Each structure stands twice: as structure tokens, then as C-alpha cells.
Amino acid sequence: MLKPAVNRDTVSGEALFILRNLRENGRLGRSNKLADVKAALEPSVSLEFDSYFFFLRKFHYIAMDREAQLKLTDQGERVVDGDSLDKFTLEVGEFFADQILGPDEATQATSAEELGLVPPPPPELTLEESEVMRPSGPPPIPLPPSRGSRTALPSVEPMIPPMPSVAPVSAPAAPPVAAPLPTITSPVSSPGSSSMPPPAAAAASASASKGAELDMRYQKFDPIGSGPLGTVFKGRFNALGLDICIKELKDIFGYFSFLQRGEVLKRLKKELCAQAQVRHPSIAQIIDQNVDSSRPYFVVELLRGSLKERLDAGGGKGVPVPLALRWFFQLAYGLRAAHAAGLTHHNLKPENVLFDNCGNARLADFGMGRVIEVDATKGMPQVFMGTGGMAYMSPELISRSKDAGPSADVYGLGILLYEMLTGQIPGRRSPLPSEINPEAPSGMDSIFDRMTQDRKEQRYPDIDAMLDDVYKTFPDKEYLEKGDLILSSELQEG
């Protein structure tokens, strides 16, 4: 695997560049939250931002509080003021030894590029393009594209002071290439796979059509969504020519320290493997995972849109009652199968209900809340990933009770049913579904009411108990019999 064409001076300059941003943000009262700083500065550095963060924290140049706010230590302040720069550079060389080129290697790499033996560095990551080397004034920082999720983190615009004492060294300019070069693959995602490709990459039709390769098995194309934990890309499984969905979870580590990373990855792999074991028409199929990559990802079948998008398109009136009831049963039977395998979801919300190309509902992202669950014994902090899913969480999930089980998913499904039928989130004194939507069957009112009781002992204990009541309420078999799942087989356009 080829090393990135950067040397020690380049990386030390970029590490100092990050320190100066942190100090200036602090002086101006701007956010220094790790996730925000990472989102703003990662496009402007040559290596993974996480590597710089781990280095600066390991050598005590920065500290992080329980809310993931970063600040400079006294040692970090001294380096920014120009003291101990030689020591700082030596520590960079020690920490990044396997990621940077020595003097001899840099000469060899440059010669290889001149001979056309290796592809040039991606345009969006060269230091000239990122404006880091501009000596005439504060360089602008390109911001990443806005996130699509309603729980997305806000972007920040850090202020960058001049850098007179130490500046990153620009990577050598790449010579023009007469023809496309072979793709160089590696076990991790290509650094050129930014969610917003540079103009040069967009103009190169061959590169744009092929996309970035992951583990020599998958191609990663344009992003199709994002949220607080990472980004979702459309992709392709090379061996089968199959369109897939790649979920890259690099942003999850913005909320945890280096020491907590191992615990997060362990939990993530456990949840992915558990969901992969449950095969059901109403559960999104997990195809593969690689949590050992520098940007952990997992692969899911490619699905079409979410329930959130369908509800938004309904303009606050919900969805047609026949569809709402069909999706309700599909989700109920999906949860029933998962619970039978010992797997609870505990993260039900419209964003996690997806649709296949025939319009059938499928549950995705089982157990993501457990991946970031607080655990004082393992040093895992309290982390809130936005409030988008709070309305669908049972009281025991909100209070993080250890005895939350299948009935917590019954509660979340009841809230989804109400929203599909009415377009609204129910409150404590909300009208019953049929009182808002006359087309909704009144027999479902009592079902919904019991599904969403605050006290567990007054709620259905599991999906089977709820379905028993549903089929007793509709003896004429409007919805067939218990165990019958209604699936659409009509392909939908778009």
C-alpha cells in the first residue's frame, strides 16, 4: 500500500494549524466541540483528522471535557506561541512514522510521480487546493456539505489567524496525465471519496463513473443521506454488479475519546451481526461490515426512501389509511421476528423505516442506541444524538432503564401508527386516531391506546399480544389471519 505523499513538516504544520484554530475559536466564543471542529477542518488536512486529534491529545497539547469540547493545554498554548517547535516536530515524526515519508522516500515518491508510475494525489486533498499554504493572509476553510438529517450537527466557521512561524509544506504539484491511470486500492476507503467531489474529479468522466473502492469489493458513489453518526452512500458490490447502500460511521467517534473507540466498535459489530442473523421480508438485510477500517462501515441492501420522506410528502396529514395499515402490519411482523431471535430495536422512528422497490416497509438500524449507550464502568459518557427519536421512545428507554424489552418497541410502533394515520405525534391528551382521521378504523383506537401506555404493566408486553387483540377486533378478517403478512409485488417507479 502506498504511503500518502506528505512529510513530517507538512503534518506538523497542519497539527499546529489545528491548534491555532482551537485557540482562536475559544477567544471568539465559537464552538470547539470535537465533531464541529472535525467537520470544519478535515477537508484542509492531508491525513485523517482523527489521527491529528489522537496525536494532540496523547502528547497533552489539547484536552477534552465531558461534553467533547476541546481546549488547548498550557503546553499547547506554548507551541502556538512559537515555543518548543523542534520538540513538537520530533513528536509528530514519532507518532506519524508509518503515515509520512522520510527524506529519501519523499525523493523516490516524487521521482515515481514524475515517471507516471503512481497516480497524483487527489486534487481536493493537496495542500495548494486547501489554501493551507497561503502566506498572504488567513486561509479560508472549505466547509463540508450540509447534512440532510434533522438531527445533523451544525456547521461552524472557525476563524484562522495568520501562521507566520510554522506553515505546512505544500505537496509537490502533480504532472498532467495523458490517460487515466489504474485505480490503486487499499483496505480502507480512499481519501478522495469526499461527499462533495472537486471540479477536477467531476470533469474526469472515467473517475466519476467508477467511484472510490472499499476493500477491493465495493465501489462507493455519491452520498444519499447523512445523520449524526455518519454518511450514507450509494454503492456497488463488484462481484455481483449489485447496487447496495454503504453506511460509513466515521462521525460517531467525534463523541468519544480514543480509549472509548474500542468499546464503541465492539458494540457496533455486535449489533450488526445480530441484525444480519434475522432474515425477514420486513427487516433490511445486512450484507457485510468492516468496523476495523479507519472509517468503519457496513453494507445494506439498497432501499428507496424512508417513512419520514413519505410523511413529509403528506403535508402533515399522514399517509393513505390502506398504506398506513399495511406498513403497520409489516413493521409488526418484522419486530416479531426480531424479538423471537432475541433482538430488540429500541430506536424506532420514521428515518429507520425504509422501503423496497415494491413499496414494502423494512426496519433498519437495529440497536444503534445501544452502540452509544452510557456505561460508567467502561468509561462511556452520556451522549445525546439529537432529539429526533425521543417522541418514539418509551419512558423506560428515556430513563435508560435496564429492563427495557420488547414492550418498548410496541410503544414506538404505536407512535408510528398514530403518525401514519394522522400526520401528528400524539401527546398525553391527544384525540384518538379515528377522531382526527374518520377513514381510520375505530377499532384501532383502543389498540393504539394500550400500545402507548406509559406504565409497562398497562402496555402490551410484546407484539404477539398486540396482534391477538388486533385480530379479535376484526373478526371478518379484513387483515387476514395472524401470521399472514401482506406484501406488495407491484414495482414502483422512480
Topology:
Blueprint: H1 8-28, H2 34-41, H3 49-58, E1 62-64, E2 70-72, H4 74-80, H5 85-95, H6 103-114, H7 199-203, H8 205-210, E3 212-214, E4 218-226, E5 231-237, E6 242-248, H9 258-277, E7 286-290, E8 297-301, H10 307-313, H11 321-340, E9 353-355, E10 361-363, H12 368-371, H13 395-398, H14 406-422, H15 433-436, H16 443-451, H17 463-473
Antiparallel strand pairs: 1-2, 3-4, 4-5, 5-6, 6-8, 7-8, 9-10
Helix pairs in contact: 1-4, 1-5, 11-14, 14-16, 16-17
Description of the structure:
This protein is an alpha+beta fold and 494 residues long. It has 3 domains: 1-134, Topoisomerase I, domain 2; 218-297, 2-Layer Sandwich (Phosphorylase Kinase, domain 1), CATH 3.30.200; 304-473, Transferase(Phosphotransferase) domain 1 (Transferase(Phosphotransferase), domain 1). 36% of the residues lie in helices and 10% in strands. It has 17 helices and 10 strands. The chain has helices at 8-28, 34-41, 49-58, 74-80, 85-95, 103-114, 199-203, 205-210, 258-277, 307-313, 321-340, 368-371, 395-398, 406-422, 433-436, 443-451, 463-473; strands at 62-64, 70-72, 212-214, 218-226, 231-237, 242-248, 286-290, 297-301, 353-355, 361-363. A 6-stranded antiparallel β-sheet has the order 3-4-5-6-8-7. The longest helix has 21 residues, at 8-28. The radius of gyration is 26 Å and the shape is elongated. The model is unreliable at 109-208 and 380-387 (pLDDT under 50).
